Amino acid sequence: MIHSRKTALLIxxxxxxxxxxxxxxxxxxxxxVAVSAANTWDYGDYRVEMLNFGARFTDVEGPVRLGExxxxxxxxxxxxxxxxxxxxxGSAIVIPNVSRTAVDPQAYEMNGNRLVWVNSQKDGAVMxxxxxxDLETGNVRSLGTDxxxxxxxNSDVRISGNKAYISADFVYSQNQGKPSNTNSGIxxxxxxxxxxxxxxxxxxxxxxxxxxxxxxxxxxxxVTFMTGExxxxxxxxxxxRPIRGTWTPKHEQLYGAHLLSDxxxxxxxxxxxxxxxxxxxETQVFADQQLNWxxxxxxxxxxxxxxxxxxxxxxxxxxxxxxxxxxxxxAQKIDTIGSANGSGFVLDNAKLMYSIDPMKNGGFISAIRTxxxxxxxxxxxxxxxxxxxxxxxxxxxxxxxxxxxxYANHSIGKRLTFGYGSNPLIADARHVYWRGSDKNIYxxxxxxxxxxxxxxxxxxxxxxxxxxxxxxxxxxxEIPNDKTYKTWFNSYDNVQIASHDVVVDNIFAGTIGMKPGxxxxxxDDPKVYIxxxxxxxxxxxxxxxxxxxxxxxxxxxxxxxxxxxxxxxSFGGHILTENDYAKAVxxxx
Length: 589
Description:
Number of strands: 44
Shape: elongated
Distance between the termini: 36 Å
Strand content: over 45%
Low-confidence stretches: 1-30, 360-394
Helix content: under 10%
Number of helices: 6
Largest sheet: 12 strands, antiparallel
């Protein structure tokens, strides 16, 4: 069972016999597409779709968060590159043929939230271009051309000031042209002078993993030798040198190496926190500060669930589910967050946000707490109106103790469960993505119409008087006719009868119009319009946006307007997207 609703619920749409992508807009290199759905379930307040990225779900990675963006990665057969799908308002910006290493979240953060990689100028060529993509627009620009890197694969790029450092595996051919053994090295490229320099004089069995560039311009990298041992090294065009005390046997691991502001290096070796000082050769070992190896063993590909590093700060979870924070090498305990199911944390430049075990918060999804490390204060037990991804929206997303994807929006008082799965991410105010328990990719689209915020409104009339008023807050509005009344209330059975004094105690505020979000159609005009908060009419410009807002029943319940009705209306701009609807009707964004 994929969804938490009963199986008796009707599947609205079967497999769509359309191309995997429906082009919506193309502008220069920016290509926005609508991702088709294999199945759709419509629940009124929200719609769930099983997405089809034009590949088997095993060939699509994600969702992944890169800065403020949620992306999916479609593998390219026979290559170490992927097509990147940046999810925007339910559609996707497609950036093709991006190096797999560039879309690693930690690499993206280390590059200052820049997506940078090298691409071969043609298959089998030894000349490369250094490229950067803008995730907001999808546009790709060149940072350098004609870089002679040789026959390489698995390349990685780090940007530091006006320098780009490129590591890669070299591929040599023998035995009738088939690729043979590889070794690896590091280049430095001057973005201003466009000079390329080979700065590594050693050979490694794997591409060095970049961990940063220090104030001297030396590259910190984790290298793996031909015999399997690992060690942290500093590389420059002057010298290459190992960091004493970091040599690690091949059966052990070294995680999370990063530079501190004073040039020291912080990392975990065999799950124990250490700090090495390259200047003195000394190493500090913190035996009581360890990484949670059980969480890491459960999902080796998701290191960020156990440890995150931002600008020299590091947060991690220990074997006792205690969250720690290290700033400039000084570590402290923050809180016990509980089991892995439903708890989590997000580290950014200003704060550490984390959620506690949902069983400690009413059994739904976790409360979020914030540790502001600039003033070293903990705001305990305070619900933060941001999601776990840091979006400035009053919503939380997580996994309930029962394995459902749970969503809570405090501003409109909604709690929803979308289906079973893991790794949920909020992309924007109305779109949530996750991996289902069946490994397929799902999107939940919240109907903007369900978020129309109106204070408690009720109909009332004075005893002996037929005039009905709508009372909202401390104001009363005259309801001019039956057509307007029925956009607010389903029947007349709930009209309250009150004394004259009680009714007029509410301030008279004039005549009320149709409820914001009402769909209307004009005489002899097939177009469908919606009524905004100011009483203006906006044309729903496409069936696609109408479906996104109102779901399968978008063309039902439409109010017919006569020429007489039109006297009270003027026209506003067209509704081209869900965001246009939200601005006009809900008052968001």
